[in-house]
Amino acid sequence: MLKDFYDKHKNFSFRTSTEYNISPGIKCKFDLLKANLNSKRIFENAIDLGSSGNSILFFLDKIKQRNFYDIADLPLKQYTDINFCHPLCGDLVKLPYRDKSFDLLTALDVLEHIKDDETAVSEISRILKKNAIIVITVPHRMDFYTNQDRIIGHYRRYEISGIISLFEKYHLKNIKIFGVYGRLMKIADIQSTNPHKTEQSLINLRLRYERNLAFRRFWDFIVGLLTKFMKLDAKFHSLKNIMNLALIFKKQY
């Protein structure tokens, strides 16, 4: 079960907003999403599906109410005592929200983990108001599927035409598409050679960053440099060669 996967793999469950500072991949992704969303609109009620502990909603302004929904309990605990933040644990194919509840929804690297992704998309559409904005990221092209995808629980990678058609079926119109990760993300395949060691190394990195000021300054420099390379990699590759995509949709009615 998906919940068992995240309860077992603590690298995902232990994530906090600090992840933006220690992971070039997450920093690259969030920066590109913020730049491309670039909305002056004030959102009344936003939700991040599959939020983990490092939600994009903390990095977006002009949101009045923030909701966090995840299948794992542990990462949601940090949101419980923050004003205007509402965490809830559950399954994405059975969302416990009323129809037309939200005007902004994010689901970053989530749909590929869900076996019945069509039901998930229908639920996403159901809880959105007319003209709501949806931001998703997904791994691109089954031709790029590797053992690393299997290890981290991916049922699939998506073709552009397929993901757009799926969302349009539920009245969600694509208004923008762009690359998040280019070919540099192939380095992630190295992690599949020893996934348990990789997971523990990432947990140790997180702890060292939080506890050691000198290391934190050094790592900030490294992350900043790598993030620049990743952004350039995503910018100058054609979409057909992009490893991970971002898509922005708008609810039609």
Provide the low-confidence segments as ranges: none
The CATH topology assignment is Rossmann fold
Report the CATH superfamily.
Answer: Vaccinia Virus protein VP39
Number of helices: 9
Q: Give the helix/strand class.
A: alpha/beta
Intertermini distance: 34 Å
Write down the domain tally. 1
Radius of gyration: 17 Å
Largest sheet entry = 7 strands, mixed
* Total number of beta strands: 7
Could you explain how this protein is built, in words?
The protein has 253 residues and is an alpha/beta fold. It has one domain (2-251): 3-Layer(aba) Sandwich (Rossmann fold), CATH 3.40.50. The protein has nine helices and seven strands; from the N terminus they run H-H-H-H-E-E-E-E-H-E-H-H-E-H-H-E. Helix 5 links the parallel strand 4 and strand 5 (128-139). The longest helix is centred in the C-terminal third of the chain and has 24 residues, at 213-236. InterPro entries: Methyltransf_11, SAM-dependent_MTases_sf. GO terms for molecular function: S-adenosylmethionine-dependent methyltransferase activity. This is Methyltransferase type 11 domain-containing protein.
